[in-house]
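Rotation project, supervised by the postdoc (A.L.). Task for the rotation student: set up a whole-complex structure prediction and record inputs and outputs verbatim in this book. Inputs entered:
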Amino acid sequence: MDKRVVFRSAWLPYALVAPQIAITVVFFFWPATQAVWFSFQLQDAFGLKTQFVGLQNFVNLFKDANYLASFRVTAIFSVFVAFSGIAISLLLAAMADRVLRGALAYKTLLVWPYAVAPAVAGVLWAFLFAPSIGIVTYVLKGFGVDWNWIIHGDQAMVLVVIASVWKQISYNFLFFLAGLQSIPRSLIEAAAIDGASPSRRFWTIVFPLLSPTTFFLLVINIIYAFFDTFGVIDATTQGGPAQATQILVYKVYHDGIKAADLGGSSAQSVIIMLIVIALTVIQFRFIERKVQY
Amino acid sequence: MRLKLLAAALASAGLFSGHAQAQTEIQFWHSMGGALGEKTNGLAEKFNASQKEVKVVTTFKGSYPESMTAAIAAFRAGQAPHMLQVFEVGTATMMAAKGAIVPVAKVMGDSGVPFDPKAYLQTVTGYYSDPKGNMLSFPFNSSTVMFYVNKEAFKKAGLDPNKAPRTWKEVLAAAEKLKAAGQECVYTTSWPSWKHIENFSAWHNVPIGTKENGFGGMDTQFAINSPVHVKHITMLADMAKKGLFTYAGRTNQGDAKFSSGECAMFTGSTGAQAGIRKAAKFDWSINMIPYHDDVKGAPQNSIIGGASLWVMGGKKAPEYKAVAQFLAFLSRPEIQMEWHTDTGYVPITQAAYEMTKKSGFYDKDPGAELAVKQLTNKAPTANSKGLRFGNFVQGRTVIEEEMEAVFAGKKDAKTALDDAVKRANEILRQFEAANK
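Outputs recorded:
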């Protein structure tokens, strides 16, 4: 049965979507257009002298081996953040869904980190893992691990991934839990009666039925890793050591806000914008086919 | 409608001028948090109480980069403050913004407020002056880098606690002994680029960049890959490998490693003293930074860090006069002495230094004087009067990234410093193009 709402008025539908469109225009299209415009310019910090330089900012970026290296760092970082974030929260949601007693307490605790600002999350983990005073460092030392992310790049990467994932788990968890609760019990019970083991039930019934949620979260988590994690990085490694955690968006922030290089920073944000648009298109065209609604 | 507008404009103009006649208000944005913020507010209050025409309003705008960004945004919106505190690495950026700032020498000259540039300490004001010696910004809080020693750790290692190493050779010898005595962290540093590249160059009288470290023009290039630099960074890398040097990070993370007793030797800002005094549970000493005795002319003099006050453009003449009055007030020996003895920042005038000396303060606190002595060790040369590199916020990051690659064992010192020069020069060319 197909249900359709038909608006008889000519303007009402437009009026109803107008607030959303206005917000999108003011907070997305306008700044995005400005970024594109600035990316073609060379400007001093105070905006006193502006020159149109065409694609020079982009040429400079791609000539810089260190900028190219930060693509690799971003790819590693995003893949780790998105996949471990989704996997861990799926596991937690599947567990929380089965809890009978005290379910509310578990759920509340799991949702809690979402209220924490990225920078605070970063500082929190940086303290736990601090090279000389951190409690985790102390424990690791007991196991003979030389933990010092101030100088070891791979450890710094582990730290920022943990902090970023921890921050995002709650969000993923909420969606997975809602998804799990909307799966009809009868399906699972029928499979159980047929003798399917819990893990088989999960992989053949629950996981496919969750695929729209998983797909949505994949898109959201990639975008999160690309854009929202600079607070975590700024509060902990600031891109270091030796650019080991210099993800693209952190360089945008460092060059634009800290170093007042508006043109270069805008060119970088245009590049990130293009990457995310491309990734989203790819995800919708190729991965969405595997999604069962 | 037009009439109404006109009336409104007239009314507001009348209101404004009436207000201005009563008292000129000066906006002063700074980055002094905590106890330093209180001291800064205290200075403004004291000035406000000392006369009736001018009222200085201080606003804390966050960290140095944050307040600079805020001021740039405010300037673009036509609402810049009168005075802005900018950290030393922002000097070239501010200086190049000709329409955005007014040189302090001009503000003072136009105002008719008595001002003698010779009364100031050369090493301090030189950093903020143009090649002709005109003061561009007013040195507010100036520090330098010192060498700290944990005397108890020295005693434990069988070293003379009252004889701190003076050369890097002596540092190495002491470091081996400390390590052998079980000291886990032997030597660490805060602000790696400021200490081991910028101050290192000045202290050994070698250029950081061409064109008098950038003072002579924007077409400067970095020169930090000289044999002297490579030798020094190689030595640090070797120390790191042997466990004699622990890298602590790019800002002041080294401070806590020393004051907690973890590291026995430490190079950090004069400003670290307050924190060490509070936290250290051991006897320590403050000394001049070590030098390589095989480098001719070393030790020269160290350079400052910290921040200066910039006067922003686009304001009215009476407001500039008010700014000049405040700057003259800040230069008074008794005010300078109070600031110097309270905060550990160095005094900016000869008179304030003499006054502090006479007061006997240095007998109780020799470290405070040692900073001045180190800054004025010899008359500054083209290599040691400071540095002026465009976009040095980015430049310093590049240098520190390359240093980290060396300390992590990923690159040798020569390759890293060559790469640092190449990358940092590109930033300079970008800055030059943007400010043509």
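Student's summary: The longest helix of chain B spans residues 413-434.
Supervisor addendum: The domain at 146-302+392-434 of chain B is CATH 3.40.190.10 (D-Maltodextrin-Binding Protein; domain 2).
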